[in-house]
Recover the amino acids of this structure.
């Protein structure tokens, strides 16, 4: 619900705040608790705008989240997360963007004896084939240990400001069958429909199967019920070989069925459906976790395109290690397409030094460098470099935190880009 | 009258079965908040728990070095276990419909989290999107979440 939106949304906010006040007033909720977090972010950088080049952009963000009610046990609780922004400069950089948004604002009811959970308001729905933000109701229950369901209905948040679309509604459900932690299979459905037509209607199947020897098989498939084809399949097997964690995987994406070509979809993706491309992705990752706090991981992806008749590969290596209270890490990524424009090499290294010394037991220091080398020049530039240094300090039994970050970036789009960020976090 | 009775019976039977089953079952619900275990490594569930228990395979929730990119499947199926430590706010940093700041800029000094799009991603995204546009679409596939795409892509 973007700020300054329609009366229905304002009414929803008013309703939630009224219920919050009632919860607070009624003695039966005297055990209610309140959890509050504020993140205020001051940032400064330069951008070219319609008004002038190298215009100073100085946004101030406030991200606020609170939870109120019975937060640890059964009963009612209210949850809110939203943000607002002002530009303390006069760059006009944000003139086409909303100045804030409510990310979620919902009432929740939990009854553990019935294994029932229900939410009313704006919320993120993660329900099988659905991962959408919805203004409406969601209910989930596992009435029998081996059978459960969840269902939702309401207005799709992401489409409320979409041009040409109105009167959209969405609903969906997921039902699953589970046998302890041995296996779970789920069937899910979602639809988004409006006056304009061009509906999005999908069916999903998800699976988890525990195999002997600390191994498991998991994955999902989704079918586009409008086009009638399978949109994507994604399956992986995970197992251990002594200290090695191994995970081969397979994905198949049919562009015609996975992407939506209508107004429900964002413009940059609409044409993809018409290409009819089918991508098969084979790969695997291996992770080695040492007891001394050293983690090493390697990942390999092989992309095979049916229409383009091309292939590409990606190799990624990761290394994390602890030295005292410092966490050190390095990463390498090699993307290797058949053409030069699809190749790059990425390297990254970082340190995160938390509560470094007795004298600085409330502090933290961080830094990282990301360097990317492109095989083909982009805007006449072959590489890009990003470097950052950060520091932070905690106060008032860690309830208040002050953080600073300075960043430098140079690449095809910016010769030399500097950014400073100050963040104040308050937890109550 | 006959229709009313049939409708009543059809309504009451499933509701009664649901309530009966729900009341009879035990120990399915996870606690809402993970108990505070000072000094323990909460990121690795199996440092305290067995690899698997009644309704959860703890091993799948271990925050290994690649968990930032691998958590999707477990979060979708058993998000209730994620919520024991993480509030929805934590997920919204990356998955919120309209957060404006990219995750790496909202949490600039938490560099160990391998936040998406760290550094000069505006150059790199061209190649990543050509190679596999599906991950882009999952997060930026609708009108509201594609605001960052629009200045260049319309």
């Amino acid at each position: 619900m973007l700020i300054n939106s329609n009366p229905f949304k304002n009414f929803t906010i008013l309703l939630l705040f009224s219920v919050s006040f009632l919860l607070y007033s009624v003695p039966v909720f005297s055990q209610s608790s309140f959890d509050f977090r504020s993140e205020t972010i001051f940032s400064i950088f330069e951008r070219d705008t319609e008004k002038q080049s190298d215009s100073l952009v100085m946004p101030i963000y406030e991200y606020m989240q609170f939870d109120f009610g019975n937060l640890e046990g059964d009963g009612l609780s209210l949850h809110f997360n939203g943000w607002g922004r002002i530009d303390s400069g006069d760059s006009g950089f944000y003139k086409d963007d909303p100045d804030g948004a409510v990310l979620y604002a919902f009432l929740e009811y939990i009854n553990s004896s019935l294994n029932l959970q229900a939410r009313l308001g704006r919320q993120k729905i993660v329900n099988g084939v659905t991962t959408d933000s919805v203004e409406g109701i969601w209910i989930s229950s596992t009435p029998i240990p081996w059978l459960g369901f969840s269902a939702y209905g309401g207005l799709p948040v992401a489409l409320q400001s979409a041009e040409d679309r109105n009167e959209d509604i969405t609903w969906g459900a997921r039902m699953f069958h589970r046998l302890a932690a041995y296996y779970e299979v789920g069937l899910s459905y979602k639809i988004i429909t409006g006056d304009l037509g061009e509906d999005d209607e999908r069916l999903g199947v998800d699976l988890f199967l525990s195999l002997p020897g600390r191994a498991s098989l998991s994955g999902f498939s989704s079918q586009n019920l409008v086009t009638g084809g399978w949109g994507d399949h994604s399956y992986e097997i995970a197992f251990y070989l002594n200290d090695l964690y191994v995970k081969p995987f397979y994905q198949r994406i049919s562009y015609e069925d996975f992407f939506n070509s209508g107004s429900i979809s964002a413009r940059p993706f609409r044409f993809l459906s018409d290409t009819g491309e089918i991508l098969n992705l084979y790969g695997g990752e291996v992770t080695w976790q040492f007891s001394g706090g050293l983690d090493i991981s390697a990942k390999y992806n092989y992309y095979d395109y049916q229409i383009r008749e091309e292939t590409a590969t990606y190799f990624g290596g990761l290394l994390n290690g602890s030295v005292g209270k410092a966490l050190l890490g390095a990463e390498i990524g090699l993307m290797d397409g058949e053409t030069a424009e699809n190749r790059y090499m990425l390297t990254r290294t970082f340190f995160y030094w938390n509560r470094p010394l007795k004298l600085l037991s409330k502090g933290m220091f961080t830094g990282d460098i990301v360097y990317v080398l492109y095989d083909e020049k982009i805007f006449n530039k072959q590489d890009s470099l990003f470097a950052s240094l950060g520091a932070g300090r905690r106060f008032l039994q860690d309830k208040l935190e002050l953080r600073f970050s300075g960043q430098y970036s140079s690449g095809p789009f910016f010769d030399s880009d500097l950014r400073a960020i100050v963040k104040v976090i308050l937890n109550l | 009258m006959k229709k009313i009775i049939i409708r009543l019976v059809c309504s009451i039977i499933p509701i009664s079965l649901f309530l009966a089953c729900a009341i009879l079952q035990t120990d399915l619900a996870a606690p809402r908040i993970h108990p505070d275990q000072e000094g323990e490594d909460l990121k690795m569930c199996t440092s305290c728990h067995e690899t698997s228990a009644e309704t959860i395979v703890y091993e799948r929730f271990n925050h290994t070095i690649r968990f930032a990119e691998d958590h999707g499947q477990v979060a979708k199926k058993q998000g209730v276990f994620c919520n024991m430590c993480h509030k929805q706010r934590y997920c919204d940093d990356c998955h919120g419909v309209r957060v404006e700041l990219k995750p790496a800029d909202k949490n600039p000094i938490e560099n160990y989290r391998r936040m998406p799009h760290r550094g000069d991603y505006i150059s790199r995204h061209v190649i990543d999107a050509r190679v596999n546009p599906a991950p882009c679409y999952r997060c930026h596939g609708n009108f509201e979440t594609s605001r960052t795409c629009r200045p260049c892509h319309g």
Q: What stands out?
A: Helices of chain B lie at 2-24, 67-70, 72-82, 88-95, 103-106, 121-131, 134-140, 150-153.
